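PROTEIN SPECIFICATION:
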Amino acid sequence: MKNPYDEQQTQILARISNNVVKLNETLLEVNQKIEEINEMNSDLVAFSNIWNHYQRNASLYLASTNSIEPSIMRAYYYDNSAADQREAHDSGRPVQVEQLNAIGVHYQRLEGTEEENAAAIDALCKEREYKSRDDITISPMLLPNYEEKIKTFFTEHIHEDEEIRYVLDGAGYFDVRDASDQWVRIFVEKKDLLIVPAGIYHRFTLDTGNYIKAMRLFKEDPKWTPINRPDADSNEYHLAHIKSITPASFC
């Protein structure tokens, strides 16, 4: 006997099959749209990278053509706050180049080409009778015993040699004591030249970038061993420095 529902069941199964086909087609379309969106996002990322690369190269080009205003020396009294030593610690009391000169510290910005700056360094070596030089890189990844060295650099000390640093890359801070024994912080970055006299109390730290590469200049074998305070208070080089500076230069 023929099932009266056979025809109806066949129609229902046909509609289900047809709907499944349509569903598969729709899913394929959705997947294609997702792929298109992913491609568009990939293009946007690529465009963003190209644009950032262009901006970086444009900035370097403008800098090389002196179209960007030269960096201005930043020196100021240290604020003595408890913040990390690598922070700016800017008290808002600026210090001028002339005031640095009065305590024997000399700052210069070399704005020439790489060849011109190299020639300026050579001339300085001849003028001050410096015969040797080397490069030092300070960063957590590149300096052996980094943590120990950083603590040593930031401990108040003197050297019995003049200290000349030309920054090749990165940035940091030199702190020096003025005639009234206050800390003056000097920010140094690429192309900055700093001369710190023998006998002056000073210290050094990186900025928050945690990286600096600098050229060191010296006459013979350098005396890198620091003499910490208060052991250096009676040192002949420190006493000579104190005698040479002008107390009236700072207020």
Remarks:
- The longest helix spans residues 6-64.
- The CA atoms of residues 22 and 146 lie 66 Å apart.
- The chain is about 40% helix and 25% strand.
